[in-house]
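Record format v2
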Amino acid sequence: MIMLGFGKLNMAVVGTGYMAGKMAETIRYVSEVRPYAVCSRSTDRAYEFARKYGFKKAYGSLQELLEDRKVDLVYIATPHSEHYEQVKMCIEYGRPVLCEKPFCLNAPMAEELLALAHEKNVFAAEAMWIRFLPFAGQILETLRSGIIGEPVMLTAGLGYNVGRVRRMLDPDLGGGALLDIGIYLLNFASMVFGDDISRINAHCTYTALQLDEQESITLRYSSGRIAQLAVSMVGVSDRRAVISGTKGCIVIENVNNFESLTVLDSDHNKIASYKRPGQRTGYEYEVRACARAIRDKRIEVEEMDHEQIISILHMTDHIRSQLKVRFPQEMNEQELEAYHKFRAEHTASRNKETAAPAADRAEEAGAAGEGTASAGADRPAENGETLLPAAAAGTEKGSASGGDLPEEPA
Amino acid sequence: MIMLGFGKLNMAVVGTGYMAGKMAETIRYVSEVRPYAVCSRSTDRAYEFARKYGFKKAYGSLQELLEDRKVDLVYIATPHSEHYEQVKMCIEYGRPVLCEKPFCLNAPMAEELLALAHEKNVFAAEAMWIRFLPFAGQILETLRSGIIGEPVMLTAGLGYNVGRVRRMLDPDLGGGALLDIGIYLLNFASMVFGDDISRINAHCTYTALQLDEQESITLRYSSGRIAQLAVSMVGVSDRRAVISGTKGCIVIENVNNFESLTVLDSDHNKIASYKRPGQRTGYEYEVRACARAIRDKRIEVEEMDHEQIISILHMTDHIRSQLKVRFPQEMNEQELEAYHKFRAEHTASRNKETAAPAADRAEEAGAAGEGTASAGADRPAENGETLLPAAAAGTEKGSASGGDLPEEPA
């Protein structure tokens, strides 16, 4: 890429977790940026991260980092619940910002932040990496070629067993399967079928703290198309997406990091296939897109502009409203009180549970209904993330669904 | 198989279409039965079929066929709408009967027929062939082995472009995607997750005559599991089913005729795989199961007993009720009148459409919304089946969904 004589952008990372490390690895492969600063509430962790990945500066707070005028691009990799305040601070300090998905907890928050970005003329983007992968172009080109005829349906599934990872289970941190896993599928559907949605319907099962654990989402489009999305934070899926057309289908392996594309004809014969070309971590594309936009003095990227960020969050708001999944950050005083009471009761029942003899616990777990999912089933830790203690075995699993809302979400 | 000295069963086929031919091909591979008689409303077609497949007798009506006391097993391969009357006649004549799926249009009809089978002590079965395939045992065994941990979710998609085949489009013939295609997925889910369903939700798009064209079905089980099913009569799917567990997933290729099974671990590495052993047409297993049951003087098969036939039809009734898809056979006089009026208007608008200049038609089709699916898109004939003329281009595509019904379907 021609850099037109400009220097590299000084990149800063907020947070020191798994995704922060992934981004630090990525930066070394992107000629447009260099590792510059990192911040964490723990200064020790910030120093360790800086040393490990060759960052010049380590800060103990976001404010200190933002006061450093040499910072050219801030990447935020903290829990969902922190995004709103942190992005806001970046914009107020005039620092270009790339924030991990979801950009924030809901659409009104995103609308406020992006209006501020416009007002202050500061670059802001969401790190929804699949939007930036070059293979997305291959998928759309194959679709446009007409090889599968008229596309009529899309199915996609994404599931990981992260059902005991703390941030997934904690409403305070914006937990639940939708915002962490389902959001990829909504973005994929949006890339392929657009946003002219006439109806959304979602159905789910819940964690002990009433977050969405597994969900089935159906999008119907004005064109008559259907997208059907399966999301799970407790079960491992094949990560496949299929675009069904009148003459055949396009099969995409790994909807979370496109790996290959296969075209089947109406007799299910393979008639074309493409493999993704080599990539580094895959996050290099989003970083390059940000660097390009900042160089060009744009405040958004083409791959996922501000309107699209808001549009996807309107969908997640719509779905959460049907599923009755809300975060404490969205509650009024009365609701908050009820939430804290419910949470305290849950913790008490869990502690009582933990104190009971193991044999009794097993029996109770059995009585709760085949011992599936979050009802006390023992799952392994993944990626060394913090685990919550096993949920109270006696907690009943619920399920719910909602009707159509009258307005379109986008 | 030890035949214990009994002779072969004389098998009769009702209908001379695609499935009748498949069954005639199958009979030659099954030592327990022999081709004996065929009937069709067209005596010519019956004779031709008998000659082609080596059947001894050709009849011009079901009654004549049933009056032949040498008939040991009747296989029905006529449109869905005929099943109820034809199965009833078989039972009344005391002739064992294997009827193509769906066994009949709805659960009350099946309950009546199967009660009659009990009363008259006559064998009756539904030809839901995937229930009889030996590979189903391999799937259940793999699941029970615990290799994917606790199963939590199931997804399956089945779609073919048969959207201009007459019987699919005609309410009088019990058309629509659910009873012809979706029923396989309901049976698959039932085999894998059982029938302890707490909620069913379905959403669909419609054909010009208000039949379900594509649908998204979500089943939630009392255990907290979810099954998500995607059905289409206009789009080609990958026919894949995935059972997601806490430690990995089982991927099944071709949920309509199991071809292979692959187990992926939580890192998506392939850790086991099985291919289906060789088979003839695949229908030999259902025929053998019927022959065994008849020899043993049973009136149902273990693979799909009468309770299961009714249970699946309760599910399709429940789904159709949400989707507001009903057949004329289920309507009262007033509803029938409205239906015939609607149908006549549709035919008139279609004829007017056909008379309009081609260029205008194309423009109207475009105006109807991206020209997808049944809205005038030209699709090829499949399997030489009768095609309806293209649906009226101006007909708006609708979509709908229903809430949860209070009772469980099974």
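The longest helix of chain A spans residues 333-355.
Chain A touches chain B through 66 residues (CB under 8 Å).
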